[in-house]
Design goal:
The complex is a heterodimer of chains A (about 375) and B (about 425). Chain A is an alpha+beta fold. Chain A has helices spanning about 1-30, 150, 155-170, 215-220, 265-275, 300-310, 355-370, and strands at about 35-40, 50-55, 60, 70, 80-85, 90-100, 105-110, 115, 125-130, 135-140, 145, 190-195, 225-230, 245-250, 255-260, 300, 320-325, 335-340. Chain A is built from seven helices and 18 strands. In chain A, a hairpin with a 6-residue loop joins β5 (about 80-85) and β6 (about 90-100). Chain B has eleven helices and 14 strands. Classes of the chains: A alpha+beta (about 375), B alpha/beta (about 425).
């Protein structure tokens, strides 16, 4: 009997302990020391579930799909930083003071970056981002003109981007020489995206390679090259005063910019040669010449060109100085640099040709370097 | 017997927790991301490079190793250990091509090499990174060197729980057994039972949470040890964490190692006075953004006001009451925190960063200038017209100068505020409250 009474007492104490312990746990989870984070879509103001919530750099979990909320227990007094991310949305960070603020509402906006890789981005691949231009050029007025084409028609922009991707990257073996010298599955070594925010378009005709709003650079930090694509010129291409232009301009890793017209695919390939593969022009004219080692396509001396040719089992006799004879329309030109690739070479011609063997070696080198 | 039953109950509850945890992990969970980048902005000015800004933030980096160029960038760790290296070209060099005659010059080249340009370097975050260097490989000239630690410290102050910051905070780990999550949960739960038991026995319902206040770190700089002690005591009473330096040089040395949230700087120090120290702080890109509150026992001279009004965040005359100091500190830190919050909103809205920064700077200058004008414009600072001598006339000109400048700044700030608010409104975001 005494044992039974003792047993009841023990059970009673344990029950009490468990109740107190559970009460404590629940109060810690949702009690007055907790913080509620509400995540909403900045545009629709609707609550968003499955948003990842981090407090002071610690991942805490995701918001509930029904209410878009997450309750964080045991928040200490003081200043904290809450960070919210969600696939397809721009991440937001907010500082707040607890317990002054016990409910934090964070509005996140849909991101403007669209991935074009069906299986998602590959780590270490070369990141190419296309950006629509709100300007083109009028051959009638010989002036820059605003064009609504890409800003009002995302499908059209996407189609033009896909055309460029196919001809310049996915079918690279068709424009390189010899075609089997590219790394295997080279197409998978690129991540393709386009950035579409009609409220923040690029201007292809401001500066050599165009300009892009600063908000893009804040959001997209990983682009190896950003390509401003502009629609076909208005009017008819007639002479040198109204011919499409391309440009490549680098402001440091992550800010490498290139512009090109969507309707001139060889010119796109030529600019890609500069911007992605750092190939040097092989035409004779006003450009920067240098020996772009390793795997150069232009050399600073005949000996260097011949030596490279011999090492790579190419005919050293094909090394020649970059030059051109005078014609009716232009003066003669000669540079103290040498080339090997045969004509028509994409790095010399805006209408036709291939990347020659030397250029292809450099392309292979760059592709194989990515992610190493 | 009691212990046995307690353990059984505990185990049963732990299993409940386990079951709950398993059911959560069975569903597909998004993967948290902790990728971080170092962003360095340099100014290129006709062959010379200088550091404009530096930041560690969440994000992904481009491929550094597909680029070549004559400039070598290096990220170094302790003892100069090379953690990352890459090469880049001079910024802004442009290769332009115009389509020509298909049968003749099919491409016509044009080039641009700006004498002035910004250069941006985005590199992946490296644990233990301490220094960045940029060298011209053609002649070995060191173009830029930057201490990365303050930027990492700023990041880790905001995201102390980030896995990389935790590693930094505890670099030397004692050998601990590899405890599983479940064991940790069980231990925590057992601890909660013990605490609950203690509470039950004491029949006192109290909070079990330990409050760890996160107060800003304030660096006090004064060559008078008594003042240092008093200000430390005043701040300590409010739970502020304080650092102390007994002179300008000591302050600058300390800033190489630690980054406070605010600096209280005495003006009348020797051999390096407060204004000279302020100049050095503002020259160092790594610490120049730390707000500085000037403290002095002397009147603010119009000359000093004219020279330094753009560098300081507030000005406090000694002797001051503790409440004055708290109010000044709170006002500065609130301004800083408000600015960070609105910067996030502005970024989200795509507001032009330069305009936003210009407004932020103007807003601070207007607040400080008005306060300085209040001090200079007080009867003891500017005597009546009858007592004017040449020096006083100069002083009045300074007051007029700051007055005019402040009015111009207010007009420009109103214009910028209107532009930024219109962008924020168009994105459905709240307008600036300052």
């Amino acid at each position: 009997m005494a044992n039974l009474t003792q047993h009841k007492k023990v059970c009673g104490i344990l029950t009490l302990l468990l109740i107190i312990s559970l009460t404590w746990t629940v109060s810690a989870l949702s009690g007055p020391d907790s913080l509620t984070v509400v995540v909403k879509d900045a545009r629709t103001k609707e609550v968003l579930g499955n948003a990842l919530v981090y407090l002071d750099g610690v991942y805490k979990g995701t918001t509930s799909s029904s209410y878009g909320t997450m309750t964080l227990p045991d928040v200490t007094q003081g200043t904290h930083t809450v960070r919210v991310t969600r696939p397809g949305f721009k991440e937001v960070t907010k500082k707040f003071s607890y317990p002054d603020e016990q409910t934090i509402t964070i509005e996140i906006s849909q991101g403007s970056l669209v991935s074009l890789n069906e299986d998602g981005a590959s780590a270490g691949a070369i990141n190419v981002v296309f950006y629509p231009s709100s300007t083109s050029y009028s051959c009638t007025d010989n002036a820059k003109v605003a064009t609504p084409l890409y800003l009002t028609n995302e499908t059209r922009f996407r189609e033009d981007v896909m055309k460029v991707i196919r001809s310049t990257y996915l079918d690279l073996d068709k424009v390189t020489s010899p075609s089997d010298s590219l790394p295997s599955a080279y197409a998978s070594r690129f991540n393709f995206y386009y950035y579409y925010d009609p409220a923040a378009p690029a201007d292809a005709f401001s500066g050599c390679a165009g300009t892009i709003p600063e908000s893009y650079w804040n959001e997209v930090t990983f682009a190896d090259v950003t390509v401003i694509l502009y629609p076909k010129y208005y009017g008819i291409y007639s002479n040198a005063s109204c011919q499409p232009t391309g440009c490549s301009q680098n402001f440091g890793p992550g800010r490498n910019l290139m512009k090109a017209p969507a309707d001139q695919l060889t010119l796109v390939q030529h600019e890609t040669g500069h911007a992605v593969f750092e190939l040097v022009d092989t035409y004779c004219g006003n450009t920067y010449y240098y020996q772009n080692d390793p795997n150069a396509n232009v050399w600073a001396s005949l000996e260097s060109c011949q030596s490279s040719a011999r090492v790579n089992q190419r005919d050293p006799g094909l090394c020649r100085q970059i030059q051109k004879k005078a014609s009716l329309s232009s003066a003669s030109c000669i540079q103290n640099y040498w080339q090997w690739d045969p004509m028509p070479d994409i790095m010399a011609n805006g209408y036709k040709g291939k990347y020659g063997e030397a250029a292809t070696q450099r392309i292979s080198h760059v592709i194989s370097q990515a992610g190493v | 017997m009691i212990m046995k039953i307690a353990w059984i109950c505990c185990l049963a509850l732990c299993l409940g927790v386990l079951a709950c945890s398993c059911s959560v992990s069975a569903t597909e969970q998004p993967v948290p991301e902790f990728d971080k980048i170092l962003q360095i902005q340099l100014k290129y000015d006709d062959g010379r490079y200088s550091l404009s800004s530096m930041e560690v933030r969440y994000g992904k980096a481009p491929n550094l190793n597909i680029r070549t160029g004559d400039l070598a960038g290096k990220i170094l760790g302790p003892g100069g250990k090379e953690l990352q290296s890459f090469t880049v070209q001079e910024p802004g060099r442009a290769y332009g091509d115009i389509l020509g005659d298909p049968e003749g010059d099919s491409l016509i080249g044009y080039t641009e090499q700006p004498a002035y340009s910004d250069m941006f370097i985005t590199a992946p975050y490296e644990q233990d990174m301490e220094q960045f260097t940029l060298t011209d490989m053609r002649d070995g000239t060191l173009l830029v060197t930057a201490d990365l630690r303050p930027s990492v410290n700023v990041f880790c102050a905001d995201y102390a729980g980030d896995p990389d910051c935790l590693v930094r905070a505890a670099p030397v780990k004692t050998a601990t057994p590899d405890t599983s999550l479940y064991l940790v949960l069980a231990t925590l739960f057992s601890a909660s039972v013990v605490i609950a038991a203690g509470l039950a026995i004491l029949t006192i319902r109290r909070r079990t949470k330990v409050l760890v206040p996160e107060k800003p770190v304030v660096l006090i700089v004064d060559d008078d040890p008594d003042i240092l002690d008093v200000v430390h005591e005043i701040l300590d009473m409010k739970g502020y964490v304080t650092l102390m330096a007994s002179g300008g040089m000591e302050c600058l040395d300390l800033l190489k190692k630690q980054v406070p949230d605010l600096i209280l700087l005495d003006v009348g120090m020797e051999p390096m006075d407060g204004w000279q120290t302020l100049e050095q702080i503002k020259k160092n890109p790594a610490v120049k953004t730390i707000p500085v509150l000037m403290l002095t026992g002397h009147d603010l001279t119009p000359e000093a006001a004219k020279q330094y009004h753009i560098c300081i965040d507030d000005y406090l005359m000694k002797p001051f009451m503790p409440d004055d100091l708290y109010a000044a500190i709170n006002s500065i830190l609130e301004r800083k925190s408000r600015l960070k919050e609105t910067l996030a909103l502005a970024r989200q809205a795509g507001v032009d960063k330069e305009k936003f920064c210009e407004l932020a700077k103007l807003s601070r200058r207007i607040t400080v200038d008005k306060k300085i004008l209040g001090i200079l414009g007080a009867p003891q600072a500017v005597p009546a017209m009858a007592d004017l001598d040449l020096d006083t006339l100069d002083d009045m000109l300074v007051v007029d100068y700051i007055n005019v400048k402040t009015r111009d700044q207010e007009i420009r700030a109103a214009q910028l505020r209107q532009e930024i608010n219109s962008v924020l409104r168009s994105k459905g975001l709240p307008e600036l409250g300052w």
